[in-house]
Design goal:
By secondary structure, the protein is of the alpha+beta class. It contains 4 helices and 6 strands. It has a 6-stranded antiparallel sheet with strand order 1-2-3-4-6-5.
């Protein structure tokens, strides 16, 4: 998984914003709600994303994927190894993280942000 490509993907979603929080983390949000967190360093070495409840245990059983610190109770995983996922699967999981967060926004805000992807 190319973490820099993952950052570029996060930036491409409708209504996506990026800011730095906690001193050294690039946080990608939609409607003010986080959907991905990664380090600001280049190249990035990990990314945390929200996953569906039923995928959490499956994913954290894989090498290179662990429960995300501070966010695991909300079903977030941290992908630490560049070889933990191929690029296509990583892109699908990042897109799904965005969709899960986007779906929780109000309908009005969803319309204002462009209706999702």
């Amino acid at each position: 998984m190319d973490f820099e490509a993952a950052k570029a993907l996060c930036r491409s979603f409708a209504g996506s914003t990026e800011d730095v929080k906690w001193g050294a983390n690039a946080v990608f949000s939609v409607g003010g709600k986080m959907f991905a967190v990664t380090g600001c360093e280049v190249p990035a070495t990990a990314i945390s994303i929200k996953v569906e409840d039923q995928r959490f245990l499956e994913l954290t059983d894989r090498p290179g994927i662990v429960p995300a610190p501070y966010l695991a109770r909300a079903k977030w995983v941290r992908i630490e190894g560049a070889d933990a996922l191929d690029d296509a699967e990583a892109a699908a999981l990042i897109r799904r993280s965005y969709e899960l967060v986007f779906a929780k926004l109000t309908k009005k805000l969803q319309r204002e942000l462009g209706g999702g992807q």
